[in-house]
Amino acid sequence: MRPDKPLEGGGLLVYRHPAVVRITHWVNLASLVVLLLSGLQILCSHPAFYWGETARFADPFAQIVSGMGSQGEPTGRLIAPGINLDTTGLLGASASADGSMSARAFPAWLTLPRELDLGAGRRWHFFFAWLFVLNGALYLATGLISRRLQREMVPTREDLAHLPRAIADHARLKFPRGEDARRYNVLQKLTYLPVVFGLLPLMLLTGLAMSPAVDARLHLAMLLGGRQTARTLHFLSTSGILAFVVLHVVMVVLAGPVNELRSMITGWFVLKPETPEKDAP
Fold first, then answer.
1. What are the distances in angstroms from CA 208 to CA 72, 121, 218?
2. Which of 34, 43, 111, 281 is the most buried (most CB within 10 A)?
3. 85 by DSSP, 3-state: which?
4. 203-250: pLDDT as tens digits
5. Could you check whether the bond before residue 113 is cis, i.e. omega within 30 degrees of 0?
């Protein structure tokens, strides 16, 4: 642990993120971007979801449908329980490189590669999936051995007692200052824990269940309720992680992007001096 460095004006420079946390964070981000884009490329080949073991093509749980309009133009619709939405321009039909509309589940700018190529999409997806797994294993192993995960991410009774106050402060966009900002607050801990130990393992498990070679040995699809159920859960867990990433980026921007990014690049985070409440005596 490196010593704190006092700053002019009462602030304090503290070493918040060790090198392994910073490196695995950025490798995770790059891997997730490639996994998302290549995953949507793979999904373009059959943009429908089912529950159970087999795909009942006439009765999907949810699907993106490409069709033709009254003038012969490509159209798109998203159909799911309680939803039947015209998504032309984004899902089902979108502009191609020459500007003309073409029928495809996701637009070219959301897939890797841009052109429809299932084989290339799978190669990108599988390579970065294993990089993501190895990177996550390194993060977990070093975090558990150093006990950083237990120390930084498991909420204490005192943390939970301050949960209502933390929710109210975040609703007012009032972020911790001083010593309260040295570690993750209770809302961060309660958000990171289910992502690290829930959504990410579920995404990995369901991804392995769709691999015929792995599933032949471990029978993961059967444990999850069927191969199509595993595929649907894989998409839903990925969507949950994407929602977490969007929320995470929004909170970084609101909390102060320069300080937050500096800490995740150099490890050093500025603790701003506490300010007294206006209504304090």
1. 41, 17, 9
2. 111
3. strand
4. 999 999 998 888 888 899 999 999 999 999 999 999 999 999 999 999
5. yes
Looking at residue 276, its pLDDT comes to: 61
Whole-structure pTM value: 0.88
β-bridge pairing 92-95 and 101-104: antiparallel
What are the two backbone dihedrals, phi and then psi, of residue 243, each rounded to the nearest 5 degrees?
-60, -40
* C-alpha to C-alpha distance for 229 and 209, rounded to whole angstroms: 10
For 42-56, give one letter per residue: b (16+ CB within 10 A) or e. Answer: bbbeebbbbeeeeee
Q: Is 69 left (phi over 0), alpha (psi -120 to 50) or beta?
A: beta
* End-to-end Cα, the chain, rounded Å: 37
Residue type, 124: W
**How far are the Cα atoms of 16, 27, 40, 47, 67 from residue 129, in angstroms, in the given order?**
28, 12, 14, 21, 33
Classify the phi-psi angles of 192: left when phi > 0, otherwise alpha if psi is within -120 to 50, otherwise beta: alpha
Secondary structure (3-state) at 140 = helix
pLDDT digits (tens, 9 = 90+) for 53-84: 887 777 899 999 999 998 889 999 999 999 99
- Name the more confident of 175 and 117: 117
